[in-house]
Specification:
Order of helices and strands: HHHHHHHH
Shape: globular
Number of domains: 1
Number of strands: 0
Number of helices: 8
Helix content: over 70%
Keywords: Hydrolase, Membrane, Transmembrane, Transmembrane helix
Distance between the termini: 55 Å
Pfam family, one: PgpA
Structural class: mainly alpha
Protein name: Phosphatidylglycerophosphatase A
EC number: 3.1.3.27
Largest sheet: none
GO molecular function, one term: phosphatidylglycerophosphatase activity
Oligomer: single chain
Length: about 170
């Protein structure tokens, strides 16, 4: 049985590990917590987008590594599964989607929609990894791959516009 929102809320308020893994509280939304977590990723992306690309990539890599730990700890506390409230993986996946993308509303929206599409659909090999790899790494890995898939599609849309503006 999954813990109630009030139980999760209490953990969120007292533990910074859970605060982060639950996406600053966005994962506690009763419906579509993954979508709420991706919405919470937008301001994170907007802050990070001001950084030079190597710093952005390094910070995203650190967020991935930290996420393995955060998600494993919260998962263990909540019964050892990929609880829907754990959305740090969505935050990192969205940041991967948005690597080197112009900071404009239409591209943020396109990135959001593409990331959610790949995260929900879980095409091969995402679905295979999601089923086979457990723990913090498994929680993180499917969203990281969804982010890469979304980034590839987004860059095929964005690149002609970026080259035309040089």
């Amino acid at each position: 049985m999954r813990p109630t929102a009030s139980r999760l809320c209490a953990k969120l308020l007292i533990n910074p590990i859970h605060f982060l893994s639950l996406g600053f509280g966005s994962g506690l939304f009763p419906r579509a917590p993954g979508t709420a977590g991706t919405v919470a990723a937008i301001p994170v992306y907007l802050l990070m987008a001001q950084l030079q690309l190597p710093v952005y990539l390094g910070l995203t890599f650190l967020m991935f590594g930290l996420g393995i730990y955060l998600c494993a700890e919260t998962s263990r506390e909540l019964g050892g599964s990929d609880h829907p409230a754990i959305v740090w993986d969505e935050i990192v996946g969205f940041c991967i989607t948005m690597i080197a993308v112009p900071v404009k509303f239409e591209w943020v929206l396109a990135g959001f929609l593409l990331f959610r599409f790949f995260d929900i659909l879980k095409p091969w090999p995402i679905r295979v990894l999601d089923r086979r790899i457990k723990g913090g790494l498994g929680i993180m890995l499917d969203d990281v791959l969804a982010g890469f898939f979304a980034a590839l599609v987004l860059h095929f849309i964005v690149m002609p516009f970026m080259q035309g503006s040089l």
